[in-house]
Amino acid sequence: MDEQPKRDLEDLVGAEHVLATPGERLARASGLSYLDLVRRRGFGDFPVPDAVVLPGNPGEVQSVLEICARHDVGVVPFGGGTSVVGGVSALRGDKSAVIALDLTRLDGLVSVDPVSRIAVLQAGVTGPEADRLLAGHGFTLGHVPQSYERATIGGYAATRSAGQASSGYGRFEDMVKGVRLATPRGEWKLGVAPASAAGPDLRHLAVGSEGALGVITEVALRVRPVPEVRRYEGYVLDGWENGTAAVRELAQRHVLADVTRLSDVDESEVSLALNDNWKTKALRRYLKARGVHAPCLLIVGWEGASKREVARRRQETTRVLEPFGAVRIGAALGESWRRGRFSGPRQRDALLDNGVCVETLETAAYWAELSDLRDAVRAALTATLGRAVIMCHVSHAYETGASLYFTVLTARDEADPIGQWQRAKAAASEAITGIGTISHHHAVGVDHARYLSAEIGEIGVEVLRAAKKVVDPAGILNPGKLL
């Protein structure tokens, strides 16, 4: 980066908040996808930002963008760095330089309105810190994605995140009541009332914009009282079709648990195999005696203000499950899942150390197409990878459909590990196109950009391009992402 923009940025935020050592830049150069991790292990190259800038408040974020627009420097917003679709890759497009705009210092709770149950949080607050800050006022977000330990409020909003308890608390965009963005053209604030007919809701243009239409600095969020009671249980249903029919019935009768997660036979078998002890052997015998030949594990969890409320909701859920032959395994399985639900990334590191290609992808479709979508993605992955373990679960359910979350494990191609997964992901994405969405909650980033027009149409893409031209005429915001 040229000296003049660097000096301008140092004058603004302080020299100590403009980082330029190789290690500091490398730490903000990519996300946490399989391709990101294998590149960091020496398989191939990836772009690194020319500097890292850490503004201290929304006003400084705005000024950083104005400086970068003046000097034609690209800006990649960086929160927790958990993107798995290339959303924080330090691409520079046609810019001579690019900075990572690290929002770590925007870490405050701005306000809490206990009457309206709205809290305003700065973009750099992580999930655990948000809940800690809100707990002091008796509230929680209830937003718990697998990236919870590292991801930030700004990242949740920018990617339309979905949490594991979204059936009860809603997706993140359902929680957003207002948003404050910095853009090269000036600050943009949205959200003044609980509902409005004042034209299209532009909050939904900002939420999900992935840093391409502005840098989110503050988010006003609906909050809920901290639950007094949490109850998680495990059930087993016989077969995928029977299991998804049961979850569909729960959704359409509006009695979903806050957490509702159904694993297919392959994922269930891996879960049982990982706990292969006398209890698991006894469970297998018990399920066989109950006529369960293709076990599909179902995790359900309820959260509420009292034991009575949770008991009532649990009864509503279990009453619907009974005709589908659901076999209750008990609270131990549910609690085991809840305690270990953030362990996936650590397990992935161990698998990578042992030469395994391990990655995830997700999608969603209407109920009528859900099994066709699962079969198409599995077939595409198998045809590309050959021998592989392909697991799938319903991670979120709705009245009209559900999401599918796939986990793939296969032996790493040491000669071409990057190409190996790129070919598999492309095949899966082609299989998804025309049946479901290219992303239910991982966002578009770089990986899904080529499939966006098939989902929203060329006119839709042009609408996004037009919006970007208005707020970012020089194209400095997150080059190469979303569009």
UniProtKB/TrEMBL annotation:
SUPFAM superfamilies: FAD-binding/transporter-associated domain-like, FAD-linked oxidases, C-terminal domain. Residues 45-226 form the FAD-binding PCMH-type domain. The record marks 261 as: Important for enzyme activity. The active site is at 405 (proton donor/acceptor). Keywords: FAD, Flavoprotein, Oxidoreductase. One of its GO terms (molecular function) is oxidoreductase activity. GO terms for biological process: lipid biosynthetic process. FAD binds at residues 77-83, 210-216. It holds the Pfam family FAD-oxidase_C. PANTHER family: ALKYLDIHYDROXYACETONEPHOSPHATE SYNTHASE, PEROXISOMAL. This is FAD-binding oxidoreductase. It comes from Amycolatopsis thailandensis.
